[in-house]
Amino acid sequence: MYERNITHIERHVKKQNHWRLCTLNLIASENVLSDRAREVMGSDFIHRYAEGHPGERYYQGTEIIDEIESRLKKHLKSLFNCRHVDVRPISGTIANDAIFSRYIGAGDVVMVNSTPGGGHISHHRVGSVGKYTSNIVNFPLSKDGFHIDVERTCDLIRALSPRVIILGKSLFLFPEPVEELESICREKKIIMIYDGAHVLGLIAGGQFQNPLKEGAHLITASTHKTYFGSQRGIILSDVGENEWRKIDKGAFPGSSSNHHLDTLVSLAIATYEMMEFGREYARQTIANARHLGKTLYNMGFKVQAEEFGFTESHQLAVNVSEFGGGDEAARHLKDNGIILNMNLLPFEPLDKVSNPAGVRLGVQEMTRFGMKEAEMEIIASFFKKCLIEGQYVGDEVEEFRTGYQKVHYSFDGG
Hints:
This protein is an alpha/beta fold. It has a domain at 38-270: Type I PLP-dependent aspartate aminotransferase-like (Major domain) (Aspartate Aminotransferase, domain 2, 3-Layer(aba) Sandwich), CATH 3.40.640.10. The protein is 42% helix and 11% strand. It has a seven-stranded mixed β-sheet, sandwiched between helices. The chain has a four-stranded antiparallel β-sheet with strand order 9-10-13-12. The protein has a two-stranded parallel sheet with strand order 1-11. 50% of the residues are buried.
Protein backbone atom coordinates (compact mmCIF):
# COMPACT_ATOMS: atom_id res chain seq x y z
CA MET A 1 0.00 0.00 0.00
CA TYR A 2 2.69 2.49 0.96
CA GLU A 3 4.89 1.59 -1.99
CA ARG A 4 2.16 2.85 -4.30
CA ASN A 5 2.05 6.16 -2.40
CA ILE A 6 5.83 6.53 -2.57
CA THR A 7 5.81 5.86 -6.30
CA HIS A 8 3.06 8.43 -6.70
CA ILE A 9 5.20 11.07 -4.99
CA GLU A 10 8.26 10.16 -7.05
CA ARG A 11 6.24 10.44 -10.23
CA HIS A 12 5.03 13.91 -9.25
CA VAL A 13 8.56 15.06 -8.48
CA LYS A 14 9.66 13.98 -11.97
CA LYS A 15 6.63 15.72 -13.44
CA GLN A 16 7.54 18.96 -11.64
CA ASN A 17 11.16 18.76 -12.77
CA HIS A 18 10.13 18.32 -16.40
CA TRP A 19 7.29 20.83 -16.41
CA ARG A 20 9.24 23.77 -15.01
CA LEU A 21 11.95 23.31 -17.65
CA CYS A 22 9.20 23.78 -20.25
CA THR A 23 7.96 27.09 -18.82
CA LEU A 24 9.11 30.69 -18.68
CA ASN A 25 9.50 31.37 -14.98
CA LEU A 26 9.12 35.08 -14.23
CA ILE A 27 8.44 34.74 -10.50
CA ALA A 28 10.52 37.54 -9.01
CA SER A 29 11.37 35.62 -5.82
CA GLU A 30 12.80 32.47 -7.42
CA ASN A 31 15.96 31.33 -9.15
CA VAL A 32 17.81 28.12 -9.97
CA LEU A 33 20.86 26.44 -8.51
CA SER A 34 23.65 25.31 -10.79
CA ASP A 35 24.15 21.58 -11.25
CA ARG A 36 27.26 21.68 -9.07
CA ALA A 37 25.39 23.42 -6.25
CA ARG A 38 22.56 20.90 -6.51
CA GLU A 39 24.89 17.91 -6.61
CA VAL A 40 26.11 18.49 -3.05
CA MET A 41 22.56 18.50 -1.68
CA GLY A 42 21.32 15.27 -0.17
CA SER A 43 24.72 14.43 1.33
CA ASP A 44 25.26 13.16 4.86
CA PHE A 45 24.93 16.77 6.04
CA ILE A 46 21.18 16.47 5.54
CA HIS A 47 21.09 14.31 8.69
CA ARG A 48 23.32 16.38 10.93
CA TYR A 49 23.18 19.13 13.57
CA ALA A 50 25.60 21.98 14.27
CA GLU A 51 24.26 24.44 16.84
CA GLY A 52 26.43 27.45 17.66
CA HIS A 53 29.49 28.73 15.74
CA PRO A 54 32.30 26.78 14.07
CA GLY A 55 34.69 25.59 16.75
CA GLU A 56 32.12 26.31 19.46
CA ARG A 57 29.41 23.75 18.70
CA TYR A 58 27.13 22.04 21.17
CA TYR A 59 27.57 18.77 19.25
CA GLN A 60 30.58 16.64 18.36
CA GLY A 61 31.41 15.52 14.83
CA THR A 62 31.12 18.96 13.19
CA GLU A 63 34.71 19.52 12.08
CA ILE A 64 33.99 19.32 8.35
CA ILE A 65 30.93 21.59 8.35
CA ASP A 66 32.89 23.95 10.62
CA GLU A 67 35.48 24.35 7.87
CA ILE A 68 32.86 24.85 5.14
CA GLU A 69 30.88 27.38 7.18
CA SER A 70 34.02 29.30 8.17
CA ARG A 71 35.16 29.54 4.55
CA LEU A 72 31.68 30.63 3.45
CA LYS A 73 31.57 33.43 6.03
CA LYS A 74 35.08 34.57 5.10
CA HIS A 75 34.20 34.84 1.43
CA LEU A 76 30.83 36.49 2.05
CA LYS A 77 32.60 39.18 4.09
CA SER A 78 34.86 39.74 1.10
CA LEU A 79 32.03 39.71 -1.41
CA PHE A 80 29.94 42.25 0.51
CA ASN A 81 32.93 44.09 2.02
CA CYS A 82 31.49 43.90 5.54
CA ARG A 83 32.73 43.05 9.04
CA HIS A 84 30.07 40.58 10.14
CA VAL A 85 28.06 37.79 8.50
CA ASP A 86 25.58 35.33 9.98
CA VAL A 87 24.57 32.46 7.71
CA ARG A 88 22.53 30.49 10.26
CA PRO A 89 19.01 31.83 9.58
CA ILE A 90 17.22 29.33 7.35
CA SER A 91 15.11 31.92 5.50
CA GLY A 92 14.97 35.64 4.89
CA THR A 93 11.93 36.00 7.14
CA ILE A 94 13.74 34.20 9.95
CA ALA A 95 16.71 36.53 9.43
CA ASN A 96 14.26 39.42 9.78
CA ASP A 97 12.79 37.96 12.95
CA ALA A 98 16.24 37.47 14.45
CA ILE A 99 16.91 41.19 13.98
CA PHE A 100 13.46 42.49 14.89
CA SER A 101 13.61 40.56 18.17
CA ARG A 102 16.78 42.44 19.11
CA TYR A 103 15.65 45.97 18.25
CA ILE A 104 11.86 46.25 18.47
CA GLY A 105 10.02 46.33 21.78
CA ALA A 106 6.41 46.78 22.82
CA GLY A 107 5.21 50.24 21.91
CA ASP A 108 8.17 51.12 19.68
CA VAL A 109 7.35 53.03 16.51
CA VAL A 110 8.60 51.27 13.37
CA MET A 111 8.42 52.76 9.86
CA VAL A 112 8.03 50.40 6.89
CA ASN A 113 6.97 50.25 3.27
CA SER A 114 3.23 49.59 3.01
CA THR A 115 1.91 46.51 1.23
CA PRO A 116 0.72 48.53 -1.81
CA GLY A 117 4.05 50.37 -1.63
CA GLY A 118 5.85 47.07 -2.08
CA GLY A 119 6.61 46.13 1.54
CA HIS A 120 7.08 42.52 2.59
CA ILE A 121 4.52 40.82 4.82
CA SER A 122 7.14 40.17 7.53
CA HIS A 123 7.39 43.96 8.00
CA HIS A 124 3.72 44.35 8.86
CA ARG A 125 1.19 43.78 11.65
CA VAL A 126 0.31 40.27 10.51
CA GLY A 127 3.99 39.38 10.12
CA SER A 128 7.12 39.43 12.21
CA VAL A 129 7.15 43.12 13.18
CA GLY A 130 3.61 42.78 14.48
CA LYS A 131 4.80 40.25 17.07
CA TYR A 132 6.81 42.98 18.77
CA THR A 133 4.85 46.22 18.29
CA SER A 134 1.59 47.48 16.83
CA ASN A 135 2.95 50.99 16.21
CA ILE A 136 3.78 50.46 12.55
CA VAL A 137 3.77 53.52 10.29
CA ASN A 138 4.01 53.41 6.50
CA PHE A 139 6.50 55.55 4.61
CA PRO A 140 4.81 58.24 2.53
CA LEU A 141 5.29 57.64 -1.18
CA SER A 142 6.14 59.97 -4.02
CA LYS A 143 3.50 60.60 -6.68
CA ASP A 144 4.72 57.73 -8.86
CA GLY A 145 4.30 55.33 -5.93
CA PHE A 146 7.56 53.46 -6.46
CA HIS A 147 9.78 55.75 -4.38
CA ILE A 148 9.71 56.92 -0.77
CA ASP A 149 8.97 60.63 -0.34
CA VAL A 150 12.12 61.55 1.58
CA GLU A 151 11.02 65.03 2.71
CA ARG A 152 7.72 63.83 4.15
CA THR A 153 9.44 60.81 5.69
CA CYS A 154 11.92 63.07 7.50
CA ASP A 155 9.00 65.13 8.82
CA LEU A 156 7.37 61.96 10.17
CA ILE A 157 10.63 60.79 11.72
CA ARG A 158 10.97 64.09 13.58
CA ALA A 159 7.37 63.89 14.75
CA LEU A 160 7.27 60.20 15.73
CA SER A 161 10.86 59.32 16.71
CA PRO A 162 10.72 55.73 15.48
CA ARG A 163 13.00 53.16 17.05
CA VAL A 164 13.55 51.34 13.73
CA ILE A 165 13.01 51.99 10.03
CA ILE A 166 12.88 49.06 7.63
CA LEU A 167 13.79 49.66 4.00
CA GLY A 168 13.54 47.12 1.21
CA LYS A 169 10.54 45.67 -0.58
CA SER A 170 8.94 42.73 -2.35
CA LEU A 171 7.95 44.94 -5.29
CA PHE A 172 11.41 46.45 -5.57
CA LEU A 173 12.08 48.39 -8.76
CA PHE A 174 14.44 51.11 -7.56
CA PRO A 175 17.10 51.67 -4.87
CA GLU A 176 15.93 52.89 -1.47
CA PRO A 177 16.93 56.32 -0.05
CA VAL A 178 19.50 54.99 2.41
CA GLU A 179 21.94 57.88 2.01
CA GLU A 180 19.16 60.47 2.19
CA LEU A 181 17.88 59.09 5.51
CA GLU A 182 21.24 58.23 7.09
CA SER A 183 21.91 61.58 8.73
CA ILE A 184 18.52 61.90 10.44
CA CYS A 185 18.74 58.28 11.62
CA ARG A 186 22.19 58.90 13.03
CA GLU A 187 21.04 62.11 14.71
CA LYS A 188 18.04 60.43 16.35
CA LYS A 189 19.76 57.07 17.00
CA ILE A 190 17.33 55.15 14.79
CA ILE A 191 18.24 51.65 13.63
CA MET A 192 18.05 51.38 9.83
CA ILE A 193 17.42 47.83 8.63
CA TYR A 194 17.63 47.07 4.91
CA ASP A 195 15.76 43.98 3.74
CA GLY A 196 17.70 43.06 0.60
CA ALA A 197 16.02 39.71 -0.05
CA HIS A 198 15.10 40.52 -3.64
CA VAL A 199 18.20 42.46 -4.65
CA LEU A 200 21.00 40.65 -2.78
CA GLY A 201 22.47 39.26 -6.00
CA LEU A 202 22.39 42.70 -7.63
CA ILE A 203 24.14 44.16 -4.58
CA ALA A 204 26.71 41.35 -4.68
CA GLY A 205 27.26 42.08 -8.37
CA GLY A 206 27.83 45.77 -7.68
CA GLN A 207 24.94 46.87 -9.89
CA PHE A 208 22.36 48.18 -7.43
CA GLN A 209 23.19 50.09 -4.26
CA ASN A 210 25.54 49.39 -1.34
CA PRO A 211 23.27 49.75 1.71
CA LEU A 212 25.92 49.27 4.40
CA LYS A 213 28.27 51.85 2.90
CA GLU A 214 25.34 54.23 2.43
CA GLY A 215 24.40 54.06 6.10
CA ALA A 216 22.26 51.01 6.89
CA HIS A 217 23.05 49.28 10.16
CA LEU A 218 22.11 45.83 8.88
CA ILE A 219 21.15 43.95 5.76
CA THR A 220 18.85 40.96 6.06
CA ALA A 221 18.11 38.82 3.02
CA SER A 222 17.16 35.49 1.59
CA THR A 223 19.69 33.81 -0.67
CA HIS A 224 17.62 32.39 -3.53
CA LYS A 225 16.18 35.30 -5.50
CA THR A 226 18.64 37.40 -7.46
CA TYR A 227 21.27 35.73 -5.28
CA PHE A 228 21.16 32.30 -6.93
CA GLY A 229 21.81 30.13 -3.88
CA SER A 230 19.82 27.64 -1.86
CA GLN A 231 16.79 28.76 0.14
CA ARG A 232 18.29 30.27 3.29
CA GLY A 233 18.71 33.62 5.05
CA ILE A 234 21.63 35.90 5.82
CA ILE A 235 22.51 38.90 8.01
CA LEU A 236 25.27 41.37 7.08
CA SER A 237 26.55 44.30 9.14
CA ASP A 238 29.43 46.66 9.96
CA VAL A 239 28.36 47.37 13.55
CA GLY A 240 30.81 47.09 16.45
CA GLU A 241 31.62 43.87 18.24
CA ASN A 242 29.35 44.49 21.24
CA GLU A 243 26.40 45.30 18.99
CA TRP A 244 27.07 42.23 16.84
CA ARG A 245 27.04 39.95 19.89
CA LYS A 246 23.48 41.11 20.56
CA ILE A 247 22.51 40.37 16.96
CA ASP A 248 24.28 37.02 17.10
CA LYS A 249 22.03 35.86 19.93
CA GLY A 250 18.99 36.81 17.86
CA ALA A 251 20.05 34.26 15.26
CA PHE A 252 20.96 31.58 17.80
CA PRO A 253 19.29 30.70 20.04
CA GLY A 254 16.75 33.43 19.21
CA SER A 255 15.39 32.19 15.89
CA SER A 256 17.35 29.11 14.80
CA SER A 257 18.67 25.90 16.34
CA ASN A 258 20.27 23.63 13.77
CA HIS A 259 20.64 25.59 10.55
CA HIS A 260 20.07 23.01 7.79
CA LEU A 261 23.64 22.08 6.90
CA ASP A 262 22.62 20.44 3.65
CA THR A 263 21.57 23.73 2.05
CA LEU A 264 24.47 25.60 3.68
CA VAL A 265 26.90 23.59 1.57
CA SER A 266 25.12 24.41 -1.70
CA LEU A 267 25.03 28.08 -0.67
CA ALA A 268 28.83 27.96 -0.40
CA ILE A 269 29.17 26.78 -4.00
CA ALA A 270 26.66 29.37 -5.22
CA THR A 271 28.63 32.07 -3.40
CA TYR A 272 31.82 31.17 -5.28
CA GLU A 273 29.82 31.37 -8.51
CA MET A 274 28.55 34.79 -7.47
CA MET A 275 32.10 35.94 -6.75
CA GLU A 276 33.23 34.79 -10.20
CA PHE A 277 30.22 35.68 -12.37
CA GLY A 278 28.09 38.02 -10.23
CA ARG A 279 28.94 41.33 -11.88
CA GLU A 280 28.21 40.09 -15.39
CA TYR A 281 25.06 38.27 -14.25
CA ALA A 282 23.66 41.25 -12.35
CA ARG A 283 24.37 43.61 -15.23
CA GLN A 284 22.59 41.34 -17.72
CA THR A 285 19.66 40.78 -15.35
CA ILE A 286 18.98 44.51 -15.06
CA ALA A 287 19.49 45.04 -18.80
CA ASN A 288 17.00 42.26 -19.52
CA ALA A 289 14.40 43.70 -17.15
CA ARG A 290 14.66 47.17 -18.65
CA HIS A 291 14.50 45.84 -22.20
CA LEU A 292 11.51 43.63 -21.46
CA GLY A 293 9.77 46.61 -19.85
CA LYS A 294 10.44 48.84 -22.84
CA THR A 295 9.31 46.18 -25.31
CA LEU A 296 6.09 45.42 -23.45
CA TYR A 297 5.39 49.15 -23.15
CA ASN A 298 5.87 49.65 -26.89
CA MET A 299 3.43 46.78 -27.50
CA GLY A 300 0.75 48.61 -25.54
CA PHE A 301 1.09 47.16 -22.04
CA LYS A 302 0.80 49.49 -19.04
CA VAL A 303 4.29 48.90 -17.69
CA GLN A 304 4.74 51.02 -14.60
CA ALA A 305 7.37 53.70 -13.88
CA GLU A 306 8.00 54.46 -17.55
CA GLU A 307 9.34 57.91 -16.59
CA PHE A 308 12.15 56.22 -14.63
CA GLY A 309 13.10 53.68 -17.26
CA PHE A 310 10.70 51.05 -15.85
CA THR A 311 13.16 49.52 -13.37
CA GLU A 312 16.69 49.45 -11.99
CA SER A 313 16.36 45.91 -10.64
CA HIS A 314 15.29 42.48 -11.89
CA GLN A 315 11.59 43.34 -11.57
CA LEU A 316 8.82 44.94 -13.55
CA ALA A 317 5.30 45.95 -12.51
CA VAL A 318 2.52 45.90 -15.09
CA ASN A 319 -1.05 47.11 -14.71
CA VAL A 320 -3.23 44.38 -16.25
CA SER A 321 -6.62 45.57 -15.06
CA GLU A 322 -7.86 45.64 -18.67
CA PHE A 323 -7.23 41.87 -18.83
CA GLY A 324 -9.33 41.07 -15.77
CA GLY A 325 -6.81 42.04 -13.09
CA GLY A 326 -3.66 40.46 -11.72
CA ASP A 327 -5.16 37.16 -10.62
CA GLU A 328 -6.97 36.57 -13.88
CA ALA A 329 -3.98 37.57 -16.03
CA ALA A 330 -1.55 35.46 -13.98
CA ARG A 331 -3.78 32.39 -14.25
CA HIS A 332 -4.22 32.86 -17.99
CA LEU A 333 -0.47 33.25 -18.51
CA LYS A 334 0.22 30.15 -16.41
CA ASP A 335 -2.07 28.14 -18.68
CA ASN A 336 0.20 29.28 -21.50
CA GLY A 337 3.42 28.27 -19.76
CA ILE A 338 4.36 31.72 -18.40
CA ILE A 339 4.65 31.80 -14.63
CA LEU A 340 4.42 35.03 -12.60
CA ASN A 341 2.35 36.44 -9.74
CA MET A 342 -0.36 39.00 -9.18
CA ASN A 343 0.69 42.04 -7.14
CA LEU A 344 -0.85 45.13 -5.59
CA LEU A 345 0.26 48.35 -7.23
CA PRO A 346 0.99 51.53 -5.25
CA PHE A 347 -2.06 53.24 -3.75
CA GLU A 348 -4.37 50.25 -4.33
CA PRO A 349 -6.66 49.44 -1.38
CA LEU A 350 -5.86 46.27 0.56
CA ASP A 351 -9.27 44.80 -0.24
CA LYS A 352 -7.97 44.33 -3.80
CA VAL A 353 -5.29 41.89 -2.63
CA SER A 354 -7.08 38.82 -4.04
CA ASN A 355 -7.26 40.33 -7.53
CA PRO A 356 -5.13 43.49 -7.71
CA ALA A 357 -4.53 45.55 -10.81
CA GLY A 358 -0.95 44.42 -11.21
CA VAL A 359 1.38 41.57 -11.95
CA ARG A 360 5.05 41.38 -10.95
CA LEU A 361 7.69 40.01 -13.31
CA GLY A 362 11.27 39.00 -12.54
CA VAL A 363 13.83 38.07 -15.20
CA GLN A 364 16.63 36.68 -13.02
CA GLU A 365 15.94 32.98 -13.59
CA MET A 366 15.57 33.30 -17.33
CA THR A 367 18.77 35.37 -17.36
CA ARG A 368 20.54 32.53 -15.60
CA PHE A 369 19.33 30.17 -18.30
CA GLY A 370 21.19 32.33 -20.81
CA MET A 371 18.52 34.69 -22.10
CA LYS A 372 19.43 38.22 -23.15
CA GLU A 373 17.71 41.21 -24.77
CA ALA A 374 16.68 39.36 -27.93
CA GLU A 375 14.94 36.70 -25.86
CA MET A 376 13.14 39.38 -23.86
CA GLU A 377 11.55 40.54 -27.12
CA ILE A 378 10.31 37.02 -27.80
CA ILE A 379 8.88 36.80 -24.28
CA ALA A 380 7.11 40.12 -24.81
CA SER A 381 5.61 38.78 -28.04
CA PHE A 382 4.16 35.84 -26.10
CA PHE A 383 2.51 38.31 -23.70
CA LYS A 384 1.01 40.21 -26.62
CA LYS A 385 -0.31 37.09 -28.36
CA CYS A 386 -1.70 35.66 -25.14
CA LEU A 387 -3.26 38.69 -23.44
CA ILE A 388 -3.96 41.19 -26.23
CA GLU A 389 -4.66 38.89 -29.18
CA GLY A 390 -6.21 36.03 -27.21
CA GLN A 391 -4.05 33.31 -28.74
CA TYR A 392 -2.84 30.12 -27.07
CA VAL A 393 0.97 30.18 -27.00
CA GLY A 394 1.73 27.29 -24.65
CA ASP A 395 3.22 25.12 -27.40
CA GLU A 396 5.34 28.02 -28.69
CA VAL A 397 6.59 28.73 -25.18
CA GLU A 398 7.56 25.10 -24.65
CA GLU A 399 9.37 24.93 -27.98
CA PHE A 400 11.19 28.20 -27.29
CA ARG A 401 12.25 27.04 -23.85
CA THR A 402 13.92 23.88 -25.19
CA GLY A 403 16.80 26.09 -26.32
CA TYR A 404 17.46 27.34 -22.78
CA GLN A 405 18.08 24.38 -20.49
CA LYS A 406 21.63 25.05 -19.32
CA VAL A 407 22.38 27.19 -16.26
CA HIS A 408 24.80 30.04 -17.05
CA TYR A 409 26.99 32.15 -14.76
CA SER A 410 28.13 28.97 -13.06
CA PHE A 411 31.00 26.54 -12.94
CA ASP A 412 28.85 24.12 -14.93
CA GLY A 413 30.21 25.95 -17.96
CA GLY A 414 28.23 29.10 -18.75
